[in-house]
Q: What sequence folds into this?
């Protein structure tokens, strides 16, 4: 077999066989297939697409390209959730303790922030002492003891995806449905959980700009998960508006605590309860209405908050910061961004809002950058809100005063205003199984 022929076959619009896809992944990992050849194949896939079988074959080849996690010792209730990336998306911090308090087992690896989107691992590290680098033994012991542990990516999981994703990132081949679906699902399959619930975002801050495109991606991923014997569902949610009010690491932990205490923003709580309902319903094999009642009870009874505290403390985090969130990192400087005129917030470019928070220090501009855990944005007015000139639209927070001007400019560029109430796209577009 020759990679040249595989590239040519895809270039000319033909479907690749399982053997050809496996040959490509194996060769790319062992170095016998070069970056320039892999780039050419990704670009051919970008233009020609892949059918369902090719996408599933690529997913499995990548899932088996390195180590896989064996969670069989924890039985059938192992669950995982994945978000396709968002701004202000702190759902894992809320959903994980809700479902763990109901007996589901979370042995989860999460990511760091990427571009304009935040990452769960960075958020957790804003809590003093929290250890995201447990050894394998510590990780499994903690899951055994309290039913929940979340760490950064470790080991040699899906090395083919790691290498290919980095290549796609610099060759304009990220946003292809088959490549995204196989990239995400290869990691989920390798991570070992029985139940997988995907939060597929649509809108200005997401890979998929329209709900229809997000649905296509969701359908592809659900099919892959189910065909590989995992119970899989996808919830298609709105990322045209940042989720909740807070963006930035410590700020998001504070907001997650608010929600776990039964308060907080309605949109954030609803997305969390919807995701938790799917996880509980699928993993325990119970109807959705029963699962919803259980998740609401876990949240409003304080059971989920207790589980959150137990989780943070067991994983080394300072419990005082959970009891009193004012102790979480707080910034030296802040600035209120004011509305320029009367009217309504018509649209928010969520990606630009995410970039404004990166400018303030909440994310990395290069891989080596350190994060200002206290930096970020609290949004006071969202799409559809009525505003008067001079109202506070948002408050910017940072430890580096000289970032405020450019962050304010970026934030304001993200918003457009109108005279009449605008149409609002749905928070939850659809749930797929
Ligand atoms: N997230 C991933 O893990 N992979 C993609 O290709 C896109 C988003």
A:
């Amino acid at each position: 077999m020759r990679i040249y022929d595989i590239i040519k076959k895809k270039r000319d619009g033909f479907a690749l066989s399982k053997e050809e896809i496996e040959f490509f992944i194996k060769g790319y990992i062992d170095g016998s297939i070069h970056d320039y050849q892999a780039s050419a194949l990704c670009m051919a896939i970008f233009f020609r697409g892949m059918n369902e079988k090719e996408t599933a074959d690529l997913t499995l080849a990548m899932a088996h390209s390195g180590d896989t996690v064996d969670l069989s010792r924890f039985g059938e209730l192992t669950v995982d959730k994945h978000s396709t990336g968002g701004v202000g998306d702190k759902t894992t911090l809320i959903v994980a303790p809700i479902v763990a308090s109901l007996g589901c087992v979370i042995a989860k690896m999460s990511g760091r922030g990427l571009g304009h989107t935040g990452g769960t691992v960075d958020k957790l590290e804003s809590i003093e002492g929290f250890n995201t680098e447990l050894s394998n033994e510590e990780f499994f012991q903690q899951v055994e003891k309290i039913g929940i542990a979340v760490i950064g990516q470790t080991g040699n999981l899906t090395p083919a995806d790691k290498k290919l994703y980095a290549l796609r990132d610099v060759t304009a081949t990220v946003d292809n449905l088959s490549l995204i679906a196989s990239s995400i699902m290869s990691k989920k399959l390798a991570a070992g959980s029985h139940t997988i619930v995907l939060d597929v975002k649509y809108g200005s801050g997401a890979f998929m700009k329209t709900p229809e495109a997000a649905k296509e991606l969701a359908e592809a991923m659900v099919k892959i998960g189910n065909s590989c014997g995992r119970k899989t569902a996808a919830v298609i949610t709105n990322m045209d508006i940042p989720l909740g009010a807070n963006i930035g690491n410590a700020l998001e932990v504070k907001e997650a605590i608010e929600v776990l205490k039964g308060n907080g923003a309605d949109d954030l709580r609803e997305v969390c309860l919807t995701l938790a309902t799917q996880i509980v319903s699928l993993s325990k094999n119970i109807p959705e209405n029963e699962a919803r009642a259980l998740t609401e009870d876990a949240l409003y009874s304080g059971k989920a908050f207790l589980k959150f505290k137990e989780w943070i403390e067991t994983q080394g985090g300072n419990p005082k910061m959970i009891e009193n969130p004012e102790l979480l990192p707080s910034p030296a400087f802040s600035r209120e961004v004011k509305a320029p005129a009367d009217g309504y917030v018509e649209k928010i470019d969520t990606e630009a809002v995410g970039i404004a928070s990166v400018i303030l220090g909440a994310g990395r501009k290069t891989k080596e950058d350190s994060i200002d855990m206290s930096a970020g944005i609290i949004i006071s007015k969202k799409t559809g809100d009525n505003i008067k000139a001079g109202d506070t639209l948002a408050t910017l927070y940072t430890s580096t005063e000289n970032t405020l001007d450019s962050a304010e400019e970026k934030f304001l560029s993200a918003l457009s205003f109108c005279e009449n109430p605008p149409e609002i796209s749905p928070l939850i577009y659809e749930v797929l199984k």
